UniProtKB/TrEMBL annotation:
Pfam families to which the protein is assigned, alphabetical: MR_MLE_C, MR_MLE_N
MF-aspect GO terms: hydro-lyase activity; magnesium ion binding
Mandelate racemase/muconate lactonizing enzyme C-terminal domain residues: 147-244
Residues spanning the membrane: none
One GO BP annotation of this record: carbohydrate catabolic process
Cross-referenced InterPro entries: Enolase-like_C_sf, Enolase-like_N, Enolase_C-like, Mandelate_racemase_C, Mandelate_racemase_N_dom, RHMD-like
Keyword Amino-acid biosynthesis: no
Alphabetized UniProt keyword annotations: Magnesium, Metal-binding
Coiled-coil region: none
Full protein name: L-alanine-DL-glutamate epimerase
């Protein structure tokens, strides 16, 4: 039976292997809430989400005290029903990051459980559009990295077959950003994708200036140029920019993406499965974007997003940022610059439970049983 009989929650804290900085913040720590759901037949599905250094205990508290007790006894196959019931249980705190991150941990565990029960890999169960997807790297493009190091990393990624590299922008002057982009373009030539990310740091007037500069170097997209809640400014920028405008990592609901797409305020969406509340809403956003003839290039979480980008037809690239190496025994299957979706049932993430147990933060775990 698919009845949920046990729910477990815990949190581990993962320190990034390299310094990660952008125009507004540093990625100091990856708090990773993990949920494990067991059904009456003994199948167990695992899901997770993340923060970049704060808010993790609040996510665990919401899961432990409110959401997980509600799903004991539910039919794990009724994922849509569970997701909506949990959303309305927390309606006073939605739409928002804490609620979405908590919902995502449960929802990804339910999809893992369903995939395991039917014996299919997630990418096939969720759509099965293609078995692999091109990669681009962000890990060598952080804002503090020197221009020479940016060039060296882009060349190394190009040599391995990657489709492109992302470079953070938002230096004090346009000239500094321009020099960095110019150096990379001169090194990699015209056929390698250069993508840029401003992390919401510009005003509309400054974003227009930078967009004009970025067009000189045939940049593939201009990501998060302004605060994500300013749809009007993004609409104005998108209408005049020769560079595609990408948004989505700081958006938390299907409705927010609907508004951006309906207003023509972006040309690429970057829904993050953790920040939108799980696989269930992520797939809706992907298909909504497809209806607008817009690509979805998700933010972060490559170990999970590889299956989702392979599930849908309008996901042309996957972001490479290693995340789970310390608590898994599986690794992303990369061949000639392409990430191949796991072919085993479930999410395809092999969790190292000994490593997870050793890293579990005291006081942030619980087991709920019927």
């Amino acid at each position: 039976m698919a009845e949920i009989v046990k729910a477990e929650v815990l949190m581990v804290d993962l320190v990034p292997k390299v310094m990660r900085s952008d125009a507004i913040q540093s990625f100091v720590s990856q708090e990773t809430p993990i949920v494990r759901l067991t059904d009456a037949d003994g199948h167990a599905g695992t899901g997770y989400s993340y923060t970049i250094g704060s808010g993790g205990p609040a996510v665990v508290s919401l899961l432990r005290d409110t959401l997980l007790p509600q799903i004991i006894g539910c039919n794990a196959d009724e994922i849509e029903s569970i997701w909506r019931d949990l959303l309305f249980t927390t309606h006073a705190t939605a739409v928002g990051a804490i609620t979405s991150l908590a919902l995502a941990a449960i929802d990804t565990a339910l999809w893992d459980l369903r995939s395991l029960r039917v014996g299919l890999p997630l990418w096939q169960l969720a759509g099965g559009a293609k078995p692999s997807v091109p990669l681009y790297s962000t890990e060598g493009g952080w804002l503090h990295i020197t221009t020479d190091a940016l060039v060296a990393d882009a060349l190394a990624m190009q040599e391995t077959g990657f489709a492109g590299s992302k470079i953070k922008i938002g230096k004090p002057s346009l000239a500094e950003d321009r020099a960095r982009i110019k150096a990379v373009r001169a090194a990699v030539g015209p056929d390698y994708q250069i993508l840029v990310d401003a992390n919401q740091s510009f005003t509309l007037s400054e974003a227009r200036r930078r967009a004009d500069m970025l067009a000189e170097f045939d940049v593939g997209w201009f990501e998060e140029p302004m605060p994500a809640d300013d749809i009007g400014a993004h609409r104005q920028l998108t209408a005049t920019s020769r560079v595609p405008i990408a948004v989505g990592e700081s958006m938390y609901s299907l409705g927010q993406f609907k508004d951006y797409l309906a207003m023509g305020a972006c040309t690429i969406v970057q829904a993050d499965v953790a920040r939108v509340g799980g696989i269930t809403p992520w797939l809706k956003i992907a298909h909504l974007a497809e209806a607008f003839n817009v690509s979805i290039c998700p933010h972060f979480l490559m170990e999970l997003h590889v299956s989702l980008t392979c599930a849908v037809p309008n996901a042309p690239m996957l972001e490479y940022i290693p995340q789970l190496d310390d608590i898994t025994t599986s690794r992303l299957d990369i061949r000639n610059g392409r990430a191949h979706a796991p072919m085993v049932p479930g999410l395809g993430i092999a969790w190292d439970w000994d490593a997870i147990t050793a890293r579990t933060i005291a006081g942030l775990s619980a087991t709920i049983e019927g």
